[in-house]
């Protein structure tokens, strides 16, 4: 059985408070995009995990796939084994939620592979233990997430927006970026117009959504990694309606109305930036292929 685990972008990301345990409270509008990792599930006597592809990710307990697999096995007391093979394509440390998408695919995939019959709310609760973005990756499409990212309000997906994604530099860790953000205080000009963005997203008004976009973490990220600002500028010069950092960075995305516009921008930008992809927004995050569909 094979599952495609799709990445996400943050149309908006606002930091609205801090919990007593130090976690930041967010208000963010997220959407799945078609960039994906592939997870293959094969029968095996034990719990096994293998990574393939050029990208370097941990192949032990530190991988969110392993965490999700071990958690599910422990909680359900399942006695079967499985071999999970992860092929990475999603940029690592890009703020595109690749690890979370893989964890979500592991939970949903093993629920089918082992015929556990867990309902979505049970999977989401387990996902929240693995990572704050995992519940979103189980639900996918377009959602507003609040709390530490676990409270989800699903919105209808309209026609896709075409994107060019650039990862201009190595990312900062999520912890580092929130530390910098806390030192910085809020920069009002970078905060999204959240309610306006949600209304625009509901209506499928892409231009209005682009006017309301914003990522409160972006100024702190740019101070440490000026390449992020350069990539944003390059995307807007190549015709993007708007460009912005996703999540805690370092990847940025430019928004285009047509596939043609995105393709032309990609052709000009990829020789310069190297780590550059075209993709489009999607209405779901996990795509199942194979015998148990
Ligand atoms: P987010 O948007 O959720 O903050 P991200 O896109 O910035 O995440 P990821 O690529 O998901 O970052 O992962 C960041 C770190 O997590 C990596 O440096 C890697 O060591 C570790 N990691 C654990 N499991 C995975 C995985 N399956 N894929 C990628 N990274 C993983």
Description:
The protein is built from 10 helices and 12 strands. The protein is an alpha+beta fold. It has 2 domains: 2-156, Ribosomal Protein S5, domain 2; 162-280, GHMP kinase, C-terminal domain (Alpha-Beta Plaits, 2-Layer Sandwich). Strands 1, 2, 3, 4, 5, 6, 8 and 12 form an 8-stranded mixed beta sheet that branches. The protein has a 4-stranded antiparallel beta sheet with strand order 9-10-7-11, covered by helices on one side. α1 packs parallel to α2 (98-113). The longest helix has 16 residues, at 98-113. The protein is globular. The termini are close together. 48% of the residues are buried. The mean pLDDT is 93.
Distance between the termini: 8 Å
The largest sheet is: 8 strands, mixed
Point out poorly predicted stretches. none
Count of individual domains: 2
Give Rg in angstroms.
18 Å
Total of helices: 10
CATH architecture of the largest domain: 2-Layer Sandwich
Text of the CATH class of the largest domain: Alpha Beta
Report the structural category. Answer: alpha+beta
Order of helices and strands: EEEHEHHHEEEHHHEHHEEHEE
The CATH topology of the largest domain corresponds to Ribosomal Protein S5, domain 2
Descriptive labels:
293 residues, alpha+beta, Alpha-Beta Plaits, 2 domains, eight-stranded mixed β-sheet, 28% strand, binds adenosine-5'-triphosphate
């Amino acid at each position: 059985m094979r599952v495609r685990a799709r990445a996400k972008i943050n149309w908006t990301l606002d930091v609205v408070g801090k919990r007593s345990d130090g976690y930041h409270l967010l208000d963010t509008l997220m959407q799945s995009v078609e960039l994906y990792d592939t997870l293959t599930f094969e029968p095996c006597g034990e719990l096994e995990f293998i990574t393939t592809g050029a990208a370097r990710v941990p192949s032990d307990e530190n991988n969110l796939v392993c965490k999700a697999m071990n958690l599910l096995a422990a909680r359900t007391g399942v006695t079967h084994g499985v071999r999970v093979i992860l092929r990475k394509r999603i940029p690592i440390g890009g703020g595109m939620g690749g690890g979370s998408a893989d964890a979500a695919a592991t939970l949903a995939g093993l629920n089918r592979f082992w015929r556990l019959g867990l309902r979505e709310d049970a999977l989401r609760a387990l996902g929240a233990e693995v990572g704050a973005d995992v519940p979103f990756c189980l639900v996918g499409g377009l959602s507003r997430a609040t709390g530490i990212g676990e409270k989800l309000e699903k919105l209808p997906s309209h026609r896709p927006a075409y994107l060019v994604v650039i990862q201009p530099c190595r990312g900062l860790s999520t912890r580092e970026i929130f530390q910098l953000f806390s030192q910085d205080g809020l920069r009002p000009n970078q905060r999204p117009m959240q309610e306006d963005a949600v209304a625009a997203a509901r209506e499928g008004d892409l231009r209005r959504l682009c006017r309301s976009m914003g990522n409160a973490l972006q100024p702190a990220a740019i101070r440490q990694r000026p390449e992020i600002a350069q990539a944003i500028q390059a995307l807007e010069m190549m015709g993007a309606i708007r460009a912005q950092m996703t999540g805690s960075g370092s990847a940025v995305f430019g928004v285009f109305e047509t596939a043609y516009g995105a393709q032309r921008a990609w052709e000009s930008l990829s020789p310069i930036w190297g780590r550059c992809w075209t993709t489009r927004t999607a209405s779901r995050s996990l795509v199942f292929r194979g015998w148990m569909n």
